[in-house]
């Protein structure tokens, strides 16, 4: 019998992020506490999102609105890395980026965790920006998934291609 396996990835559905951004933009334009503050949210390139407002507390509140929309769309906040408010002229800006892919450093941490605490006979190998975990027993793979879900590696993890 062939080994069963699954992939550990860190990916974000860009369409869902776009939907969250549009909902946040709509809320910023209609909420009474954002009227006259120049609060806005928009894409800046492929992976960056820029929030702007005329006051520091309003740009922070706009960031909270956006984070709330991400949570509603089942996107982990670990996948969005927001910077600090920066003043430029009369406006404040927060630039955030989407974090995707597992770095080699994080992949090594995850595979070490699987080796140290996972069931015997489970193999983990790094494949680019993802990690392939394989074993002869499917129950062992389930144990590895629950082990990784209980651990915080600082990135959003998804488990795909379970076969």
TrEMBL record:
Keywords: Nucleotide-binding. The keyword Cell wall biogenesis/degradation does not apply. One of its GO terms (cellular component) is cytosol. InterPro entries: UPF0234-like_C, UPF0234_N, YajQ-like_sf, YajQ/Smlt4090-like. One of its GO terms (molecular function) is nucleotide binding. Nucleotide-binding protein. HAMAP family: UPF0234. Belongs to the YajQ family. This is Nucleotide-binding protein HQ605_12670. It comes from Rhodococcoides kroppenstedtii.
